[in-house]
Amino acid sequence: MRTRNLAVALLAVFVASGVAACGSDNNTSDAGTSSPTTLTVLGASSLTDAFPDTGDAFTQKHPDINFQFSFAGSSELVAQVDSGSPADVLALAGTSSLDALKANTSKPVIFAHNRLAIIVPTGNPADVHGIEDLANPDVKVALAGPDVPAGYYAAEAFKNAGIKVDPVSEEVDVKSVVTRVSVGGADAGVVYVTDAMAAESGVEEVPIPAKFNVVATYPAVVINDSDHADAAQEFVDFLTSDEAQQILNDYGFTSP
Amino acid sequence: MTMGSPRPNRAPLALRLVAVLGVVLLVLPLVGLVVRAPWRDMVDTIRTPEVTDALRVSLISSTGALLVCLFFGVPLAYVLARVEFPGRALVRSLVLVPMVLPPVVGGVALLLAFGPRGVLGDELDALGITLPFTTAATVVAASYVALPFLVLALEAGFASVDQRHEEVAATLGGSPWYVFRTVTLPIVRPALISGATLAWARALGEFGATITFAGSIAGVTQTMPLAVYQVLPVSPDAALTLSIVLLVISTTIIVSLRARWLTPLRDRLTT
Asked: Most A CBs within 10 Å: which of B217, B229, B260, as the mutation test of the A interface?
């Protein structure tokens, strides 16, 4: 009987925290006097950390525009848009991923550049000190899949370095590569410098020299079918403004 | 006949050893989780928006899914158990398909059915409903994967009801609906509770269908499993805290209901 009371008590705590969180939710769209617009922004997973801040900065200038962010691998986002998921803005990590998009969009705006870096688990168990070490068959390397920008950029970097790398795992997006390495599933992974910066713990960065490295180009577009095309275009334009660029730079992106 | 004293042990040693090994294999990952969790800062971590948002979305999603499953599952289980109709075996198999379908495939299938370009896309659009990226979509995805669990348990329950109880009630003047409410349902209560618990737990843990059909938007569709996945590369502490919360909730529900099942009916009536 006591376990049941405990279960009821814990369930009540669960419900109470849920209700409390409901009350503190600042995403409600019925606040404010003008009818607020909520823009749905699909972003490449490497934008997970920086984009919400750019959204906040934009909302400060345009209080009636709020954001819903959804992050996933760029190829996954393209598939979502093409299967009809309602999105207003699409921001990818590579322009060739944009080519695969069938939906009609505005002209792409390049709003950021990024570079690749190698990450290793804390302590560097496989003693990886440079990109050449990744060609060592004893080093387990995790990469993003070949259809994901982080994957095809990594392939380009390997070509520049003249090495062949056999990954033990091809992940669906670049953040999954970070997870794979940080939990010890691989000895090294190739991600963006922004991801290496953003990881709070579990990984160390091993830089890739500029002569082998690749510049990642991030395009943003407005989906033409969107119900909020004007607001969406304003946000896309905002991304190239000094304020947004400063935010992106703080996270490790470079300006185009 | 008492229920207290254990019977003489005739279980083969080999079975007992393998059973112990099985328990170890199941418990070891949980031990790993508990050992690595950031216990010191856990209360602070629970208060962060990442965790509270995920808790709220999961609460709405799993409870909503449970209600949907009960609404459709009880009649479905009853009809499958009691009503003879052509193709019944086929329908039963179809109902169980979401159980064996890989969840991501389920999510894609939901998109193809209820998404804007799906089979019902135009009709939903005419009603002003767009499901992807909404909390309602998480309820749909969770219901889809959880419903078979409820139907499976409850159909067995309905099938094993001694129909003489219902016949007696009917001869005493009860309408079919009255008999169902007052005689049949109370008898299947254990099956209903266990089926509902399984369905709720399945809905709470759903990942693949939710992320594919509803997307992963913090505070709107990002349930606890999705949050663990999204947050892990950046903040392992938040991810581990969410994992512990999920673990505690699941274990508590299972343990408390298990105690209820083990209590014999006679003892329950006298307590």
From this structure: B217
